[in-house]
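Try this one yourself first.
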């Protein structure tokens, strides 16, 4: 079952621990500046909300060179009385272990899953190492639905700046909601909880030498849980504030692997999603409140320039699988309108995404080239969203995202019709 190499001294510690009730995993790579805070928040959360449970923290590190592992070892709460009026202190077990395999978050998760299974834990949570907004309450909100209400999977529900999380808002949430019928707002949020049974189920899947081991692990976990009928819910965690990432350096590779994983999952679970119509809410726990958010700086004019350059260079690829009217709209109309009037409507964006999924399914174009050619279209859609929501409140933005999701649900018949080969991909009989 397991091919992960776990150091001998770690195996010895696990043998001494024998079993545990709760495991919290923190995958990391060069997060020395933030991981100490995350460890202390986890420790405080476990002490406050689960004092009678035997808990273990696992840091699964990808070879950090900035002192991340040392920061984990040093991080601790010495004076609990400064945090809690009363508490029942129980030993806090903490292990840092390097993971092996393909570099990426998924490989780190695999190590966490394997240790969870080895210790026969009842509930497991995973949180990002770069979080600056995590509080002890997150641990309660993530784990309690598993421990007390027998949920198998708890997704996070954050409030984020309207221009943060654009891959989620413009692609992952609308697509997964339309496909699988569950309104899980943050399918790739990064901070999750799951039952020990689901962790073992994840381990048995043959994905650990694929792109899932890089950026695709979050959407893979969410989809796998939903498609296999595990009990799923979400918990409101407040604001998600984390280390800023440069879209110019991170976007293309992350987009390629997250969307590639989403399309691969469509192949695996076609028999599940083809019969689902509409969507329904999932149980949501936690007290919803307004939060202050850090601004996200965007330059929509530069984004439109990138879109137009891509449209000029990649039009010949898109022409292979897009209907003529859709291709002409992208290549001609959007290339000439003033920046302030640039707009990719919701239904058009849904069609674009579905035609990419169909082209991926049909294997008529090299899949890597296909997925990478989506990047300028995605940037164009984000620019359109920025222009449309420039003066919108958070509530108004959420309403626009809801309308986008409905467009994806309404266009799903197009996807099903072409997927099953009832018409040619470009609409010809």
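Now uncover the answer:
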């Amino acid at each position: 079952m397991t091919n992960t190499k776990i150091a001998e001294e770690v195996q010895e510690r696990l043998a001494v621990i024998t079993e545990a009730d709760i495991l919290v995993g923190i995958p990391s790579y060069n997060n020395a500046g933030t991981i100490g805070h995350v460890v202390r928040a986890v420790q405080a959360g476990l002490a406050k909300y689960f004092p009678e449970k035997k808990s273990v923290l696992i840091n699964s590190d990808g070879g950090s060179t900035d002192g991340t592992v040392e920061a984990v070892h040093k991080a601790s709460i010495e004076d609990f009385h400064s945090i809690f009026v009363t508490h029942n202190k129980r030993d806090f077990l903490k292990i840092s272990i390097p993971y092996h395999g393909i570099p990426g978050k998924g490989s780190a998760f695999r190590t966490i899953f394997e240790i969870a299974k080895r210790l026969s834990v009842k509930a497991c949570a995973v949180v990002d190492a770069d979080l600056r907004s995590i509080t002890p309450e997150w641990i309660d909100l993530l784990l309690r639905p598993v421990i007390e209400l027998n949920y198998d999977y708890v997704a996070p529900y954050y409030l984020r700046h309207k221009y943060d999380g654009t891959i989620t808002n413009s692609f992952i949430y609308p697509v997964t909601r339309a496909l699988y019928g569950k309104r899980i707002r943050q399918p790739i949020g990064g901070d999750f909880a799951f039952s020990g049974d689901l962790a073992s189920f994840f381990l048995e899947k043959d994905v650990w030498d694929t792109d899932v081991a890089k950026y695709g692990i979050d959407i893979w976990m969410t989809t796998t849980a939903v498609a296999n009928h595990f009990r799923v819910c979400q918990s409101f965690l407040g604001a998600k504030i984390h280390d800023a990432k440069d879209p110019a350096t991170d976007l293309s590779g992350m987009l390629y692997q997250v969307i590639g994983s989403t399309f691969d999952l469509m192949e695996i679970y076609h028999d599940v999603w083809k019969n689902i119509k509409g969507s329904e809410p999932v149980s949501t726990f936690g007290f919803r409140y307004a939060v202050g958010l850090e601004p996200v700086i965007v330059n929509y004019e530069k984004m439109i320039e990138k879109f137009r350059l891509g449209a000029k260079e990649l039009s010949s690829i898109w022409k292979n699988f897009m209907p003529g009217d859709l291709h002409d709209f992208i290549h001609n109309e959007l290339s000439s309108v003033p920046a302030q009037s640039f707009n990719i409507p919701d239904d058009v964006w849904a069609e674009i995404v579905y035609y990419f999924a169909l082209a991926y399914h049909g294997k008529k174009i090299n899949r890597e080239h296909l997925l990478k050619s989506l990047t300028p279209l995605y940037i164009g859609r984000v620019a359109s969203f920025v222009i449309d929501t420039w003066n919108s409140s958070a509530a108004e933005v959420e309403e626009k995202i809801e309308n986008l999701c409905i467009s994806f649900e309404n266009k799903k018949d197009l996807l099903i019709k072409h997927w099953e080969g009832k018409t040619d991909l470009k609409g010809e009989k």
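Discussion: The first strand starts at residue 22 and ends at 28. The longest helix spans residues 247-268.
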